[in-house]
Amino acid sequence: MPIISKVGKRSTKVRLVYGVIFLILTIGTVTMLYPFMLMLSGSFKSEADINRVTLWPKYWFDDLALFQKYAESKYNVLLENVEMAWGEYVPAWYKIQKPPKEDFELLEEFLAWREQCPWWILGNVGQPTGKVMLPISARKFRELMFKRFGGDLDPFAKQMGLPIKSWSYLWPPVQGVFRYPPQRTELMGAFLNFAEKQPIRNRIITNVDGRFWQVQLVSKYTRNIEQYNRAHGTNYSSYDEVFLTRRVPAGGLARKDWEEFVRRSVKMPFACLRLRPELQDNFHRFLTMQYENNIEEYNKDHEVRYSSFDEIPLSPTLPEDRMEQLDWGNFLKNPEYCPVDGIEVYGPRQAFEEFVARRRGVPVEEIKPLRLPIAAADWHDCMAQKGEERWEFTTRNYKQVLGYIGLHGRGIRNTIIYCSLAIGLALLVNPLAAYALSRFKPPSTYKILLLCMATMAFPAEVTMIPAFLLLKRFPLWPLLGGGAAFGLSVWIFSKVLKNLPEMWRMIIAVGIGITAGAWVIPRAMGTPHISLLNTFAALVLPGMANGYMIFLLKGFFDSIPRELYEAADLDGAGEIRKFWSFTMALSTPILAVLALNAFTLAYSQFMMALIIIPDQRMWTLMVWIFQLQSQSHQAVVYASLVIGAIPTFFVFVFCQGIIMRGIVVPTEK
After folding, report:
1. C-alpha–C-alpha distance, residues 160 and 184, integer Å
2. Taking the model in full, what pTM does it have?
3. Pairing state of beta strands 120-122 and 343-345?
4. In this prediction, what percent of the chain has a pLDDT beyond 90?
5. CB-hemisphere CA count at 13 Å for 151?
6. What is the DSSP string of 288-314?
């Protein structure tokens, strides 16, 4: 029967009441959905836009926001990488703007030259420290290594010399542009081979001018160009007009800045420097001093056979051998033997200028200096692949979470087993306890119910340490022995002491059981305890019985008509038959609520599971997701929460009809 009749619905006041009720429900729905939508939107974001509070990612429809994320991903989430590449100040990702029109004038020639540029490192590899994300290049490299070694970490660690506990710890080796190029170890060699096969748009060009501006000029003269002009007596409008010249300037502070950066800065790669041939004799004297005039020591270190230092040639560019690179670099840094006038800068800009001059058929002096249009090239690459980039940024965090879960596949298996055991035992233990209280109505029923409800007064964290200690030294044999002694005593007394009141027989049997479990078995066995840690029993036993669910089931069982049990007694049905065929069959709705509650508690358990299961092979899915969240970016955390909620959502949708009946049926009865 409806609360308000059809006649009452025609009243204006009733309609207003209806309107207010629906308005309140709508507001309540919005207040619940709005935070969820913010989290869902945040799961598609990254460092570039995580602080934008929007219901959907802005880059889905805004090209500039997409370009900001593209730059953040390509330059490995480091603003200094963008500044050094573009040669301009970038205070924040969201302040990146579209490059000016003049930067696009050289774009076509730059794109053609970029294919042959040897000075680059691979972008989209992320950062292996801090709150990490997994860009496309890092993800593909991990997948490549995983497939190459068949998912087996032992041969990978043996060949690559990198012992790691899990594939989730594998990141591309550091390629940062330093003075010396990285040594080609097994892992670095595999990565460089991988990098050469990636799209050219993923390469970060080494802009020496940008490094000179950021490392040398800004750190010394601040970002204010006026301070630089006052110190050098120049009239530049911005640092964009200041270049690292090929040869050292004639004099003044410009000469000092040039020499300091070239000789001392770790951000100046030796691969972009050249030494003039007239330094050959100076190089011989330097080696004589360096090795104390001992050619044998030099031959031993370099595995060569020279009879004197005068036979050793001076390479105009950085040699490939590591020992020769060290000698070459130490010579360049020594002003006593290597005069600054003998050093030249030849990097990406100089090579690009020569390329443009050849293409236009004019001398290099007529066109230089040319500012590398790297920012314009990045904009072009981003806009040319807008659909692919949007899809990559939308799915990137979810791919990282799913990949992490896939690499720890035992977590899925453990979770399925744990949840199945938890549901099965919850549907067995709690109904049996509730049935006993409802069917037989012992005198202490309400005291037992009060004790069951009292368990809700304490948070689960209070029992963590006692439960851990109990599971670590679980008295299995005393419990089994005491129970067996109690059962055997009850059976013997029922045969021998028939005239003794039943209450006294039970008291004596309990005393015998306690004595056997607490004293006889421990003295006989010495160490009767076992450890249940790292077992499914440790996960299931602490939550097997639930006081609230026993209370709820007892109330539901009380609503079942007693006449059914009386009719079953007349038909000769036993208690097991009555429990299973009547009580359980008529309690499907409340059992669905119990199963859902057991699933939710087991599936979402991570803290207790982490404490009592030290072995990672036994970790459940939530423990692994917790580990991922502790080392991942906030957006990845949001994505893991969304993925983690999917099983619970589907279970609730599947059980929704049964749960609603579980709410309505007891009320109607």
Report:
1. 11
2. 0.84
3. unpaired
4. 46
5. 5
6. HHHTTT-HHHHHHHHT---SSGGGPPP
